[in-house]
Amino acid sequence: MRQIKTILNIIIVFGFIQAQDNVIVPNYYASLPNPPIPSFPPALVNPVLKQDTLYKTTLVSPLVPPLPNQVLDRAKALELVENEKLKAITKKLSELKGDDSIGDVIEQLLEINLEMEETFGDAPKPDGERSVMEQLIQAKIDMENAEYDLQGKLAGGSWKTRVENSAFKTKISKEIERRFYLPPNGKIDVENKYGDVTVIGWDKDSVLVKAIVTVGRRSEENAIRALDNYDVRMKTWGKSLKITTEIAGADEKRPIAIGDKSIRVGKLVFGIQDEGSYSIDLDIFVSTGVFVKVENKYGEVEIEMIEGDVEVENYNGSISVQNIEGDVLIDNKYGDVEAMEISGTVEISNYNSDILVENIGKSATIKTKYGSIDAVDIGRELDIENYNGDITVRGLKGSLLALNKYGTIKVRNAESTVELENYNGDIELDQINGAITAETKYGSIEIESANPIITCNVYNGDIVMKKIAGGEADMHITSKYGKVKLNLPKDIIARMVLKTKYGSIHYSFMEDAIEKEESTSSLIGLRGSGKGTLRIDGYSTDIYLKD
């Protein structure tokens, strides 16, 4: 949003300023002993200016927020617009919406300038100088190609600029290494941001903490000065160790000052805060039996070989937890999660990323949105809830409950009951030894092989069962707007009741005739003793049965 307002100032401020040849509009200039004060036409002073004891004179109009380090040339500014043209442009700009994108704003300014030139004519300019139109076009190109993400608050609020995707000339690191005694049944609590955290269990009754703080700046002087603003605090009490990384507020959010990187947009020059890059990486070696808790942001978390419980909360980074004998609790956003070789229970909540759980000794509960879930070799119950992502389960000893939307559910090699509900996605099942309950809308159900204990409900999709085991059946199938295709074994035992409205029934193995009444087709027959049940109810559904 801030960069949008800077473009608005290209037009307005050029018309406002009538002062010395080089005018600096100060903003965040507290460090300057005598900041220069710009002068403006008297008629414009009251609506757009106020006196401020800290920054002297600043622009405070909501339409024209303060800009850092503006360097304007009076001679060029006076050539841009005359008074009537300035009023017309100001009126047009006041009609712009504050949430317009930078490209939209510049395009509207281009249209405004064309209208003004048709009305008032183009302002005179020295030979070789670009017109307002040319400046705006170049400004759009510069802003779209800029490597800077400018963030801030409008109308005199605080300004913060983060430089991303840039190569910094100077990177300086400091290493911190400390050792603490912590009993095997102790607790370690880690809070970090802007870096990776690795926790590994070892066969010692002590904790070794290695921290590497790295700061990147455009100059060595700035890097050395900034390094002191980053530290790692460690505190023990009782059986607990607390590790916290600290970033001084002055370095997280400081005013833009002379000497920072500047960027030119058209004829406007303003500063870019030299915030640079920084990271705090932690490598921690702990007694295997401790309870590990990690909170991290903007970095990866890896935890291995812990006999106690593990809790991890992360934001914008991946999580990998392996070889844990205790229970695992994970809460993550914007990063993939892996939990492998866990003897205890696993509970994972994730957002906008993928999840892999493998070789879990006990039960697992997994919830995510906008990501896939892959669960392999789960020892007990598995409870899954997903939105806008696929679910794949391979190898399950306990029961399965899976709820999904906008993705496929695939289950293979499950020894117990399977209960599935999907929306706008298919369900695929293979080697299911327990009872199946499956429901989907706007998707199909395909069963490769399973026992004959099945309940299926499909809306606007097909049901296909390729290989059903023999024995006494307990099958209930409901279909609307699709097809039902069943390959039944010869040794299945069932009383079959098939009905469909606005559809047909096709079979190849029963002597019973199909009964038809108006728009409804039905078939009743027996396989074996007829002790079991096979019932199919269809609406606008064709039914196909064969051996």
Walk me through the structure.
The chain is an alpha/beta fold and 547 residues long. The chain folds into three domains: 2-157, no CATH class; 170-281, no CATH class; 304-546. It is 16% helix and 48% strand. It is built from eight helices and 42 strands. Strand 11 (230-237) and strand 12 (240-247) form a beta hairpin. Helix 1 (2-16) packs antiparallel against helix 4, helix 4 packs antiparallel against helix 5 and helix 5 runs antiparallel to helix 6 (132-145). It is elongated. The two termini are 67 Å apart. The model is unreliable at 1-85, 97-103, 120-129, 140-168 and 250-274 (pLDDT under 50).
Individual helix count: 8
Radius of gyration (Å): 35 Å
Tally of structural domains: 3
Mean pLDDT: 74
The number of distinct β-strands equals 42
How helical, in percent, are the residues? 10-25%
- First CA to last CA: what distance? 67 Å
Strand content is: over 45%
Q: Which ranges are low-confidence, i.e. pLDDT below 50, for 5 or more consecutive residues?
A: 1-85, 97-103, 120-129, 140-168, 250-274
* Structure classification: alpha/beta
Specify the oligomeric state.
Answer: single chain
Shape: elongated
Q: Largest sheet at a glance?
A: 34 strands, mixed
